What does this fold into?
Amino acid sequence: MDTKRFPPPLVVKGSYQYYDIIQAECDLRYGAGYMTPEVYAHWMEHPEMIQIALVDGEYAGYSSMLPVSAEEAVRTMKIDPEDVERISAGKPIMYYKSTVIPFAYEGRGHFQALARVAMETARKEGYGCMFSTAWTYGGYTPLARPFARLGFQNLYRRSMLWYDDEGYVCVVCKGRCKCDAEIYYKIL
It folds into this structure.
């Protein structure tokens, strides 16, 4: 990335003032029902766990993470219990949940900036590892290279990870999500 051409964004913690734009971006990129007022309210229980990228004071992307128990990691990400235990080594677990960068800001390093702040926040809060799911469709995983650059390791692929979420209408599937997911992890 050319930092002279695209300086890094200012990254601030989440607030409700960004909800409408995050909702619209999630609907556009992921599909209806991925982001709901209830989901955002849950995220806002820990506003430091939502990172907002700003460029010249304008919204330029977000990322979110959530503390999860080992049981939640097994249930929501379908990670084998033995893998959760081995990777977390008994330390608290953070789930890097999602990121959306508006089209106008893609390719400027915003994802990397947001993820680095998220990882540093999780590390400072005492989390031992971070798990994440990456959308895979048609054999393509858009986040594979960005995650690799951040030091995430690929654990395995899970088939139709989001299918059971009946309220989510996937932008690719045009209904219940049949997309696969790559499961990634990073020791913090």
User: Anything to note?
Assistant: Residues 104 and 172 are 21 Å apart (CA to CA). Strands lie at 10-13, 31-32, 50-55, 58-68, 93-100, 129-136, 153-158, 169-170, 180-187. Helices lie at 19-29, 37-43, 70-77, 81-88, 110-124, 144-149. The two ends are 24 Å apart (CA to CA).
